[in-house]
Automatic annotation (TrEMBL):
UniProtKB keywords: Membrane, Transmembrane, Transmembrane helix
Organism domain of life: Archaea
InterPro entries documented for this protein: DUF6789
Name of the protein described by the UniProt record: DUF6789 family protein
């Protein structure tokens, strides 16, 4: 990355370098966010698979994500719904985390990510509820909370790791 503190004979060139640095930083943050979101969503999916194996989560609930975008008639709404879920885990949620990270509790991004994941859980737990009762409801609440904490921690860990590497491309 160019050093914007050096003097340029041409002020227009200095402005172009500064603009490039800002643009590169925005793109780099987006790449870091997508990588963190992918890692977090992958780990979260693993926890949800455990929940599904004990009957405390249904992947069929991902099909509900296809309705608002008019894709409920596709041949595999669960797969399309999961891809929408994955895209949300890789784009808007990491961008929101990047914007809010400094305001969240925790001195390090992984700790802030735990709080972020917990906040996301409050919407997920109601949106993907499939009528569980009794012990299954308790397992559903526990597994989905654990999944969101894992997501937030992984998201924060990737942000911390990639944003502090001196030799990183991002």
């Amino acid at each position: 990355m160019a050093d914007t503190s050096q003097e340029f004979d041409d002020p227009t060139l200095a402005e172009q370098v500064a603009e490039y640095d800002r643009l590169f930083g925005i793109v780099a943050d987006g790449v870091i966010g997508a990588a963190g979101g992918l890692a977090g969503t992958a780990l979260m999916t693993g926890v949800l698979f455990l929940a599904a194996s004990v009957g405390a989560f249904s992947f069929a609930s991902f099909a509900s994500l296809t309705e608002p975008v008019g894709l409920s008639d596709v041949s595999s709404p669960v797969t399309v719904g999961y891809l929408i879920f994955l895209a949300n885990g890789m784009v808007p949620w990491p961008l929101l985390f990047a914007a809010l990270m400094e305001y969240l509790p925790g001195e390090r991004p992984p700790v802030s990510g735990l709080f972020f994941g917990g906040a996301l859980w409050t919407g997920f737990v109601m949106g993907f509820y499939s009528g569980f009762t009794g012990l299954t409801l308790v397992l559903y609440l526990g597994f989905t909370l654990a999944a969101h904490l894992v997501y937030g921690f992984a998201l924060g860990l990737v942000f911390e790791y990639l944003s502090t590497r001196p030799d990183s491309l991002v």
